[in-house]
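Table S2 (continued). Query chain:
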Amino acid sequence: VLVPKKAVVSDAGSSFVWVVSDDKVRRVGVTLGRDFQDGVEVLQGLTGGEMVIVVPPPGLRNGEVVTPTTT
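Corresponding output:
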């Protein structure tokens, strides 16, 4: 699975992304692989097809209700 680099957040040595499901957001830990020009490979944590927040706003919390948009 390939995600935009901007979608990956690092915290205390761990990496995660924010995934939207049923209009709620949840933090998902990921294991990263190869780095590409605009994206990064996710080896574990995502299966593909998930809606990932590309530019997560500061202060986002698990379970928060969001309104998904696509670009």
